[in-house]
Design goal:
The chain is of the alpha/beta class. The two termini are 26 Å apart. The protein has 2 domains: 3-14 and 88-163, Rossmann fold (3-Layer(aba) Sandwich), CATH 3.40.50.1000; 16-85, DNA polymerase, domain 1 (Orthogonal Bundle), CATH 1.10.150.240. The protein has helices at residues 16-27, 36-43, 48-57, 65-85, 93-101, 114-124, 147-154; strands spanning 3-6, 106-109, 132-134, 159-163. Helix 3 (48-57) packs across helix 4. It contains 7 helices and 4 strands. The protein has a 4-stranded parallel beta sheet with strand order 3-2-1-4. The chain is globular, with a radius of gyration of 16 Å.
Length: 169
């Protein structure tokens, strides 16, 4: 039996523009804006906490962990409101997940929050097709660190197929 691991943002759903807008919603009160090219080049492979750390570090600011948690919490409802409004699945993504689920266990390994992934899987009608979700808020490390993939491997079967964004995540 073959296990399949999927990334989420930018692989199954077209959510990266939504993430960028939500980051900018939160950061604008600090006088910070992330441009699309900068986001693609520097931050797309990071989870929310590490995006906030990196963006604010470019201005010489080191965040305390409670500040990071506060920024992530502030982004969550902004992201979800935009995501619900403009939810887009990449063509063929739902069918591919369903097809792979017919061949063995499927996991989502992502820097996204678990609630974001669950929302999308529900909208796609795929919640039951996914056996495991390893999300940024449920793992001690986040992609691009290989730890989340190792976590799935320790949980059972050796994954044979991984679908992820090719560039940096």
């Amino acid at each position: 039996m073959t296990a399949t691991l999927f990334d989420f943002d930018g692989v199954l759903v077209d959510s990266e523009p939504v993430h960028l807008a939500a980051f900018n919603d939160v950061l604008s009160s600090r006088g910070v804006v992330i441009g699309e090219e900068e986001y693609q080049a520097r931050y797309i492979a990071l989870d929310d906490a590490n995006v906030f750390r990196a963006v604010l570090a470019r201005g010489g600011r080191t965040l305390r962990e409670e500040e990071v948690r506060s920024l992530v919490a502030a982004k969550k409802p902004r992201f979800m409101a935009r995501f619900e409004e403009g939810f887009r699945v990449f063509p063929g993504a739902a069918e591919l997940v369903a097809r792979r689920a017919g061949r063995g266990p499927v996991a989502i390994v992502s820097g996204a929050l678990g609630s974001e992934i669950a929302f999308a899987l529900d909208k796609m009608g795929l919640r039951a097709a996914v056996d495991v979700i390893v999300s940024a808020d449920r793992a001690p490390t986040s992609k691009p660190d290989p730890g989340p993939y190792s976590r799935r491997r320790r949980g059972g079967r050796e994954p044979r197929v991984a679908h992820r964004r090719a560039a940096r995540g």
